[in-house]
Amino acid sequence: MSKKSFRQAINEALRQEMRRDPRVILMGEDVAGGRGGTSGVKDAWGGVLGVTKGLLTEFGEDRVLDTPISEASYIGAAAGAAATGLRPVAELMFVDFIGSCLDQVLNQAAKFRYMFGGKARTPMVIRAMYGAGFNAAAQHSQSLYPLFTHIPGLKVVIPSSPYEAKGLLIEAIRDDDPVIFLENKVMYDDEEDVPDESYTIPFGEANLTREGEDVTIVAIGRMVGMANEAADRLEKQGITCTVIDPRTTSPFDEDTILECVEETGRLVVVDESSPRCNMACDISALVAERAFGALKAPIVRVVPPHTPVPFSTPLEKLYMPSAEKIEAAVKNVMKQHAREVA
Q: What CATH code would you report for 207-341?
């Protein structure tokens, strides 16, 4: 056990799995070099934010592959490599670039197992940065996990901490289906104690980061930390919260959410993706359909407005959910009159 950043936890997961299984390969823009360096020369950097640093040196150019700036080509190549027996981990630098390669994911990788009667496997992972908070503006700040969650055949993973990131990534690499592994770009320097040895965290099993009696808060990815911060403040005011980290949106642990809502009778959902057809909508519908009788107050969503992510620092802060907005939502739901905090 040692203190590791989110970045280091992901790097360690990749390194340990590449040592364990020679079929694991990496590919993506600058994963071997970085900042314009040629393969084998700039390994000291390791990608746009240094996540793959050092892996080229240990595993060589046959397993750590710099690709052209053509998402369609290398995501398609990853799907083909997976179908023929390798276990590629492809880095899509920003999830916003999925539009350049969506057919390879939507109509190819996600469909292989179903189209071939369960006889085909596609053990590939697509890692991608997502989320606002980095002043990266509208084309590099989106949270598109609802898009992937909507596609049958994909597994969608959204870790909330370094510990979660390592265990979930190892599980993703060992999975026989295509996995979308989404990393919030603001979290790369977050640190916590992470085991040095290899471990896995099962998909579809939510994590209760704390338990309370008054309100259930379901939060996605980076929002989990904000929810816990809000819960700390609320506890000092006599309001205790259960905070649920789903970990994966597909598969999705419905039972844990329903059980917790049955106990508290109140639900706040925190989601940084666009408010139309997002996970907050999905979770709200789930509870309304299957636990409506347990609700003591209307469900409240803490979500951004339905606009592109702004570049301006104060506007981006206004756009995003926050611990303060979550705290306000919980107080409102305790008064039984809030609907949504934007």
A: 3.40.50.920
Residue 229 and residue 172: Cα distance in Å, rounded? 28
What does DSSP say about strands 340-341 and 300-302: parallel, antiparallel, or unpaired?
parallel
Burial class of 220 by CB neighbour count within 10 A (0 to 12, 13 to 18, 19+): buried
Burial 156-176, CB ≥16 within 10 A → b, else e: bbbbbbbbbbbbbbbbbbbbe
What ranges do the domains of the chain cover?
A: 2-194, 207-341
Q: What is the CATH number of domain 2-194?
A: 3.40.50.970
Tens digit of each residue's pLDDT (9 = 90 or more) over 33-57: 754 445 445 565 678 888 999 999 8
Residue type present at position 41:
V
- Say what the pTM is: 0.94
**Whether residue 315 has pLDDT greater than 90:** yes
Distances (CA, A) of 313 to 49, 57, 136, 227: 21, 38, 10, 22
C-alpha to C-alpha distance for 148 and 311, rounded to whole angstroms: 25
> Is 140 an active-site residue?
yes
* Residues 6 or more apart in contact with residue 94 via CB below 8 angstroms: 128, 129, 130, 136, 140
Helix axes of 254-264 and 279-290: crossing angle, nearest 10 degrees: 60
Q: How far apart are the first and last CA of the chain?
A: 39
